[in-house]
Specification:
alpha+beta, C8orf32 fold, 3 domains, ten-stranded mixed sheet, 35% helix
Amino acid sequence: MLSFLLTILNFVARKKMTYSYADLLSYNQLYEVDEQLKISQVTENKDHSVTFAFSGKGVKKHNVFKVYHKDRLLAQVSGPKLTFTPLAGTETYFIKLNEVTEHITIDLNYTPDSVFKNVGNSLSGACELTNVSIPIQERPLYSLKDWGWYFDDFEGEEKAAARYLKDSMKILPTDPSITRVMKIAGYILQTSKGMDGTPTDTMTKLSPIDQLEYARAGKSKIWCGIYTAVFSYFACRAGVPVRFIQCGNSWSAISSGDHVFNEVYIEELGQWLYVDLLAKTIFVKKGERYLNVADVQRLLKYSIDDADLVAGYFNGDSIVLTPYKQVSSTARYYFHPNNTFYFYFGDYLKIHNPRNVFERVKKIFYPKPYYAMYGNNIGSGKSQFDFRIATTYTMVLFMGLCLVFGLVALVIRKKRPK
């Protein structure tokens, strides 16, 4: 009876709970990755010195730190963490860590004990961290390996992909990531020009390379899902981490607008950037800063008649910088405040579409979320995901116990004298 009840609960968790396969992430968790250089811990000590622990790119077990105030070397520390005593007042410090090329900038406001004592206040010295040029990690972060799509199912097409990247897209080994993305997107859009529309069933069953060639031959229209798959495949082969994003909800079979598109991770910037080939949009910038999907959605709540807000837009011949207001219609349609965004993890397709019995069993016991969810209507936490995992393992445990006890009872029954 208990096993039956757990089976019902597990069915509900898998079929009826909206978030049971999701991790509900904050903005920082979506757009910071575990590989990035970041501050993992900040501690104010009893002597009013401050200790910083770092993790990520460039950090070693034993580090060399140099702390500068203006042009003066304030402290040099060797060890796993950095500890130094800040100066009184609000000051900016520049920290050099090992061989990391860029300085880490930190603004600290330190008020010493003497200031409080001068006014008869019993409070002790206080320190405030007001600005940091790198992330401060408050919660666990996913890595690029978690997010990136790798297309293991198309291992036989590496040579064809390499030829496309070299001969057709003209990608060079020295090209920075942004240039690679622009060349890939430009070639796909040029090749499929005039082919926007609902694809055939055959198109959806082809590999990304075959999809591109099918569209180029005029055998099928191409829509957002095909654009996303083809672009993701070539970006991955070009060494640019890429992730797959979907937006859309439904209420009583009425859709709030389903759309799929990409973000690419530009290692030189340490940022995820928005790419949407259906919208002919390759990056959106405000001033010198590139934007991600959440940034774009937030901006669309307000007037975007801003000369600093531009997009790389394919105008039919090439990708040119264009005022975003002129080319934002697709994003405006789909990125409305009530829509939910699904950021799929890299192994989603392999887990969601098992090819054999082993992969089906693996899917049942898969202990990770399939995707992350983000949006204005999303709550916090991941209790539904935890409930699904708990009911799955508990259900199997009790079924196993029932089987064991059943076999034991059968053996005992056979041994009884007749």
